[in-house]
Design a protein that fits this description.
The complex is a heterodimer of chains A (328) and B (260).
Chain A: H1 21-32, H2 45-70, H3 79-104, H4 110-118, H5 135-156, H6 162-190, H7 194-213, H8 226-230, H9 238-255, E1 266-268, E2 273-275, H10 281-291, H11 295-318
Antiparallel strand pairs in A: 1-2
Helix pairs in contact in A: 2-3, 3-6, 5-6, 5-7, 5-9, 6-7
Chain B: H1 2-6, H2 9-34, H3 43-69, H4 75-81, H5 91-94, H6 100-121, H7 127-155, H8 161-177, H9 186-191, H10 198-215, H11 241-248
Helix pairs in contact in B: 2-3, 3-4, 3-7, 6-7, 6-8, 6-10
Classes of the chains: A mainly alpha (328), B mainly alpha (260).
The complex binds fe (ii) ion (2 copies).
């Protein structure tokens, strides 16, 4: 799962310099006509660079995102939930695998990407720097974070880079199951015992600010992304995606009798836009730059996994037998 | 179902004991294997261990369901509310996941026994168990194929890989022999043609695992001088089971009457 919380690198407006203007023209015309760009096609260096960053960050978000939910697999209550959560988190790891492959087509290896992740050079979705405190947090994550991810991923799947779009189409199918699982889970808690209701309300209170952060800073304060939007790298504005999310999910949350911890949240019937308390973008920045409640832990876990698994990867590297890809 | 009504008391007890042993092994090892989620040495193995863990969980659920049909509680209640000494799993499945070589070796030794066991149980005189066992065969075939491939690869791998695999074979072997701890019902299970018995299973298992291990360049432990880790089938467990059960039931026990 992944949001628009991605901070694009500043690009110069208009045509990038130092590119062959004739090639650039053809490239942009193809994109405008809705064609997909494939790995062997000519592309501006800036396009390649921004795509690698974005897909890589998406992939990292999938494996880091597996951690907060993954820790609840061993505690899931009952067979039904345990099996469903296992399958869900497994899917997320599979998404990482697909996305690393998509990014590799642009010339950066999985190993290099993972190295950049564990050294902190490359980012992942900010929401995963928050802890899943109780079982109900996993329900809220699976429902609302995955819902947000779907909005972002459906938009991105209509982008211009072929391998990324195809990966996203497959991912979105699986995400829709996650959303169903998450919703079902929240419904059971919200309509359950007083204790269960309390758990799920607390979890919603905890997760609302990260959810509002999920789509990234308001367009008013984001870096300019006109070129990236013209190249169909960035597909929707952060604020538009946030509005879409609120439109789809606030009524569903209210329907369950849950309270959203924002007294200013309401739909302005005249403009059709949701009004809300402006999320704390200072906190967002602080957390994305490493100072969130779980940044250190997440990276430490990932680093430990990489270190512990290193001998296996080395053994395979020089083993004569070819690795057999598992079935699912 | 007709078969159930015909069961006499002694036979029922023997079948239940067998089913608990099978189901608890699957539940606990499935639980353990799921702990690799997000932490595997490569993403592909992360996914493979999760997939096998899901199969095991599903199999345990099916076996508990069978127990439910012959008078025990429903699967969730059985799996999530029993006391530690009421579990009948073997010691091998209880151990923490450790390093990947330990988990891999356990997966190999255990799943090889499972594949043979459920193959044998496919012709059990207890029809419902025979039916289920046939269903498990396909899943287990993939599990053993996965295990054999990896044991072979890492046994022939570079660096310290062979040494690590050898060390986990030596560590796992006494625990693995504990899989075949005879129950108090071997005679009736064999006599009634419900199950061929642990002794025969162990022999067949040795015949299957030794060639694979040799092929992977590993030294076979001296079986005659190894003390099998018994006790699990009688509810006497290692120190690792209780924390596992506590963790597994943590949420469920917030309210066992609630629907989760
Ligand atoms: Fe995902
Ligand atoms: Fe998801």
């Amino acid at each position: 799962m992944y949001g628009g919380g991605y901070i694009f690198e500043e690009t110069k407006n208009g045509s990038p310099e130092n590119e062959d203007s004739r090639k650039l023209e053809i490239f942009e015309a193809r994109i405008a006509a809705g064609e997909k760009i494939e790995p062997t096609d000519w592309m501006p260096a800036e396009y390649r660079k921004q795509l690698i960053r974005m897909i890589e960050q998406h992939a990292h978000s999938e494996i880091i995102g597996a951690l907060p939910e993954g820790t609840w697999i061993t505690r899931a209550p009952g067979f039904r939930r345990k099996l469903a959560l296992m399958a869900k988190v497994q899917d997320e790891v599979g998404h990482a695998q697909l996305l690393y492959s998509a990014a590799e087509t642009l010339g950066k290896t999985r190993e290099d990407m993972i190295n950049d992740l564990i050294t902190g050079k490359s980012k992942y979705s900010n929401v995963f720097n928050y802890p899943a405190v109780t079982w109900a947090d996993t329900a809220i994550i699976a429902w609302l974070i995955d819902a947000g991810a779907i909005i972002n991923q459906v938009a991105n799947s209509k982008g211009s880079y072929g391998p990324y779009c195809r990966a996203l189409e497959r991912i979105c199918v699986e995400e829709s199951f996650h959303l169903k699982y998450g919703h079902d889970n929240v419904v059971f808690l919200a309509t359950g015992t007083p204790k269960q209701r309390e758990m799920v309300q607390d979890a919603l209170n905890r997760w609302w600010p990260p959810i509002m952060h999920f789509f990234g800073p308001s367009d008013k304060i984001s870096v300019h992304t006109e070129t990236l939007m013209r190249w169909k790298v960035k597909m929707a504005s952060n604020d538009d995606m946030r509005q879409k999310f609120l439109d789809m999910y606030v009524p569903k949350i209210w329907e369950l009798g849950l309270t959203i911890p924002d007294p200013l949240l309401k739909k302005n019937e005249e403009t059709g836009q949701w009004e809300y308390t402006e999320p704390d973008w200072q906190e967002f920045k602080r957390v994305i730059n490493g100072d969130g409640p779980c940044n250190k832990e997440r990276l430490a876990v990932r680093r430990r996994a990489e270190e512990k698994g290193e001998w296996v990867r080395l053994a395979l590297l020089r083993s004569e037998e070819k690795y057999t890809v598992p079935l699912s | 179902m007709k078969e159930f009504n015909e069961l006499n008391d002694k036979k029922t007890t023997a079948i239940k004991d067998l089913l608990y042993r099978l189901a608890d092994d699957q539940l606990i090892l499935g639980h353990r294997n799921s702990e690799w989620t997000g932490l595997g040495p490569i993403l592909e193995e992360d996914i493979a261990f999760s997939s096998m863990a899901q199969d095991k969980l599903g199999q345990s659920q099916a076996l508990y369901q069978l127990l439910h049909q012959i008078g025990e509680d429903d699967p969730d209640t059985i799996a999530f509310t029993r006391k530690v000494n009421e579990y009948k799993c073997c010691h091998l499945v209880e151990y923490p996941i450790g390093e990947y070589n330990f988990s891999l070796m356990r997966h190999f030794l255990f799943d090889m026994s499972e594949a043979i066991r459920f193959n044998m149980l496919g012709s059990s005189s207890f029809e419902p168990l025979a039916k289920i066992s046939k269903k498990f065969k396909g899943e287990l075939k993939y599990h053993t194929m996965h295990a054999v491939t990896w044991i072979n690869q890492l046994g022939h791998g570079s660096g310290n890989s062979p040494a690590k695999i050898q060390a986990s074979l030596d560590e796992c072997f006494p625990l693995a022999l504990g899989i075949f701890e005879p129950s108090g019902y071997e005679d009736i299970l064999i006599g009634e043609k419900i199950f061929f018995g642990e002794k025969e299973l162990q022999e067949k298992w040795l015949e299957a695992v030794i060639p694979v291990l040799k092929n992977a360049n590993l030294k076979i432990p001296d079986i005659k001088n190894i003390k099998a880790s018994y006790g699990g089938r009688k509810g006497i467990h290692t120190e690792y089971l209780k924390p596992l059960i506590d963790e597994m039931t943590e949420v469920y026990k917030i309210d066992t009457k609630a629907e989760w």
